[in-house]
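Review form for a predicted model. The reviewer records the input and the model, then writes brief findings.
Reviewer: anonymous (R2)
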Amino acid sequence: MTRKIGLLIVALGLALVTVVSPGLLVASDHDDGEVDTKGRNLNLTDLYAFREVDQNSAAADGDLIFIMNLNPRSLARQQYYFSTKARYQFHVTRVAGNNDTPTGKSDVVLRFEFGAPQASGQQSIRLTAIRDGATVMGSGTAVTTPLSSAPIINRVSVGGTPLTIFAGLREDPFFFDVEQYFRVRAGALGIGPAVGFRNPGVDFTAGYNVLSVAVRVPRAFLQGSTSATTFDVWETIWYDGKQVERLGRPAINEGLIVTNDYINALNSVGPDFEADALAGKQPAARIAGPIVAEAKKTLMAVGNNESRANALLGAFLPDVLRIDTTAPSGYANALSDKGSPIRGRKITDDVIDITLTVVTNGAIKSDGVSYAGPNAGGTGHKPLLPAFPYLADPN
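Model under review:
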């Protein structure tokens, strides 16, 4: 795998926070931007986008899988619910070329809204698609899967196109020794003792669940009247008329950004804001200044000179997860000419190891944690399901 300078950074999102704009890095994260009024079911953790045939050889060619995970640290054997006042959304931009700069334009939006929990533990699901400005309501009954039940696979028609939906608790598939990462970062910044990663590392998500929304969508639906084969994907949560979360590339929002207010700022804007900041447009460029400075300081503390830190910052912005659907999916299976991953993200991709290698200029190659394990304590994640929604059953 060829590794250009921005490759890993973009991946994990450690550098995401390093973006040039608030809102720029709100990618894959657990417990970022905490506020008193934001419950965990309004907190995104990860985004996955891949060709289904790359996860399941028996799947139909041309189908894509999008997965949104949220509600971090959901305890085992406990039922959690989606907010009835929120809009959970996948955003998609059609991209002409793999090296094009993301625009943050929403050509397609898949919006999920949930009804009140029933005695059965189920919630109704309403799917709305907004494509090229036209709004189409999904037809067909769809419900969430209660805890301790087999996955309920819902089939909904959107303007004559069948989409498949799952929503409910799943085992959290993310894996990372987050606790040790913060110790390593503190040592690099001179605010703690210098330490390295443990081997094996402690997987901080082991034993926890997340709420998941998975959707199977035909590529032709996303194309509309075009022939696009590459797409930029990101996800948002809106609550009370405001965007409270956004996530694109995999990462941990807190990786490079320390200030909580900055993280909240990142959550409130979209990749279009980042595009404006990169172009020097005001007020985006001005607002992004302090955030970029904090992220850059972290990058330089872990082994990058100024020019390399700048290159890393420019590689992953605006923050979207790009997927070229003409070749096998997998994080960093291929890169743009700026070093950004362009093949989406599969569930077990080790985005942390990839990102650490790039962010630290090769000084750190692994956090000592893998999906299957054994990690510290002998922990590992359950095997993925062989068919949709693929995510392992909840703990």
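Findings: Residues 7-378 form one domain.
Further findings: Residues 1-28 have pLDDT under 50 and may be disordered.
Recommendation: see findings above.
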